[in-house]
Amino acid sequence: MDILFLQNIWFEFLGTMSLLSSIQEAGFAPGLSIGSTRKLMADVSRHRPRIVAFSCVTGIQGWALGLARSIKHDIDPGIRILMGGPHPTFFPEILREHPVLDYICLGEGEGAVIDLLRAGGDPEAVTAVENLHVRTGRQVYENPVRPLIPDLDTLPFMNRELPYQYKMLRGNPVKRMITGRGCPNACSFCFNHSAMKLYRGKGQYVRKRSVEHVLEEIDRLQHAYPVQTIRFEDDLFGVDRAWLLDFCEKYPGRFTIPFISSMRADAIDDEIARALKGAGCFNVVIGVESGDERIRNALLKKRITDDQLKRAAALLHENGINFCTTNILGLPGERFQDALKTVQFTLDMKPAFTWCSVFQPYPRTELGSYVIEKGLVDALNVDDIEPNYHSGSLLKQPDIHRCVNLHKFFYVVFNHPRLLLFIKPLTRLPTNPIFLLIHRISFLFIYTKRWNITLGRAVREALKTSGFTRKIDVESQEIL
User: Fold this and answer.
1) 384's torsion region: left (phi>0), alpha (psi -120 to 50) or beta?
2) Given this model, what pLDDT does residue 465 score?
3) What are phi and psi of 234, to 5 degrees?
4) Which residues contact 290 (CB under 8 A, 6 or more apart)?
């Protein structure tokens, strides 16, 4: 085996799936192992790959580094370790700080990983691969990123055979896809502005696959695996109006599978709403974030007004389309009354589903820099970031514990608004395990509705993913 990807989260990593298919098309032998640390170590020992690879978002890098050390120490020090994904892309110093890593990949990895495999043991060739930072002994080579892939249709369809060797993923009635890459917006809480800076002058940042290419992948998917709902995981599904209208016109002629998509409120008009309805859209996800327009636009830089959100909600209601609002509580400078406005604004929009997280101040985002500048955190160490955003807050500001407590009752209030009167005084109490339990249980019920799955499926996903985790125990390398 040439390269083995490891993950301990039972989830379709679409980036990894794209890499697997490109590697296979190039004539190399990739593998994927998902499970506990014991299983992953056993698989590495059995397959003895040339390279072990991790795809890391911020929050799971500690687990990956710990497992990498075990592989080098207990199995074979000659196995090379590659880390890709958002975390090394935005925190490339991880290679210099952790000698266990041999390579990190920044940005789009298809070409870089193939070039790495083709280089074999040639040090000169490896150290010149664009998108890679490479360690050779004490020397680190930092190569620039290559141009963005201009035509996404040139990439092979995602490899589903390897992740779907696992019944947990194969049997999921919700199958995930992407139709494009990149987002044109620069919300202050997102890494997108950093990604655009990384690729400045390297090609068109926002790209869409052709409609026909997407439809062909769906056709192959439905004939090979059980699929009840398609969940488009694009940064922003409705980023191209002409593309979206073309897709909505052609999709129902070939498929009856309902799908979930994401839209900006200012992109929804009557024509778009009717097109989505006609295509069989099950759920439109709309980012509200804060119910306070000033916070939403001055702080978060969403550039979405209350009127635009209300208009989009009205159009979706008129056309009989379910929609979900996404919200954040515990934002910098947010007082309890501001958090209540978010709750009330969500209730006024009358979405079919909702989603709420606790704000996480990621370093090297605009809002991460803001909380440091304003002294709202004692320190912002990337290794202190939790792998989920459903638990606590790092911010030091008035009302923060009340806002975090309100988050624990968000779904309860969404389903039973009259209970807000009794919940308000509860938010003054210290955060406790009972509040967390209430959140976890109410979350499960909203999760089943939002993603069109059974409660049993939701419970299994919660137990096997990091969505409910509190922290990562690096010593045991297991997600708790």
Assistant:
1) alpha
2) 61
3) -55, 150
4) 296, 299, 300, 327, 328, 331, 334, 338, 341, 342
The predicted pLDDT at position 337 comes to: 98
Half-sphere exposure of 422 (CA within 13 A, CB side): 6
Question: Crossing angle for the helix pair 241-250 and 211-224, nearest 10 degrees?
Answer: 40
Q: What is the pLDDT of residue 439?
A: 94
DSSP result, 74-88: HT-TTSEEEEESHHH
Average pLDDT over residues 168-175: 94
Identify whether the C-beta of residue 61 lies closer than 8 Å to the C-beta of residue 83.
Answer: yes
Instruction: Dig out the tokens for 53 from the structure.
Output: 């690879």
Which residue has 């987002």 as its token pair?
A: 183
- Percent of the chain whose predicted confidence (pLDDT) is above 90: 85
pLDDT tens digits, one per residue of 209-268: 999 999 999 999 999 999 999 999 998 999 999 999 999 999 999 999 999 999 999 999
What does the pLDDT look like over 35-54, one tens digit per residue?
999 999 999 999 999 999 99
Give the pLDDT confidence score for residue 353 in this predicted structure: 94
Going across the sheet that includes 3-7, the strands are: 30-34, 3-7, 51-55, 80-84, 103-105, 132-136, 139-142
- Asked if residues 4 and 47 have their Cβ atoms less than 8 Å apart, the reply is yes
Residue 215 CB contacts under 8 Å (≥ 6 apart), including other chains: 250, 251, 254, 255
* DSSP-derived 3-state class of residue 25: helix
What SS3 class is residue 112?
A: helix
DSSP designation for 367: H
CA distances from 57 to 62, 197, 223 (A): 11, 19, 32
| pLDDT of 322 over the 80 cut | yes
Measured distance CA(193)–CA(196) in Å, rounded = 5
**Minimal CA–CA distance to 436: which of 359, 324, 358?**
358
pLDDT classification of 390: cutoffs 50, 70, 90 = confident
What does the DSSP assignment read for 190-241?
STHHHHHHHTTTSS-SSEE--HHHHHHHHHHHHHHS--SEEEE--S-TTS-H
Strand order in the sheet with 353-358: 174-177, 229-232, 259-263, 281-289, 323-329, 353-358
Query: Hunting for tokens 């947010």 — which residue is that?
Result: 334
Domains of the chain, with CATH numbers? 3-142 (3.40.50.280), 171-479 (3.20.20.70)
Residue 466 pLDDT more than 80?
A: no
Cβ(8)–Cβ(40) below 8 Å: yes
Tell me the whole-structure pTM to 2 decimals. Answer: 0.92
Q: Give the tokens for residue 345.
A: 């604004």
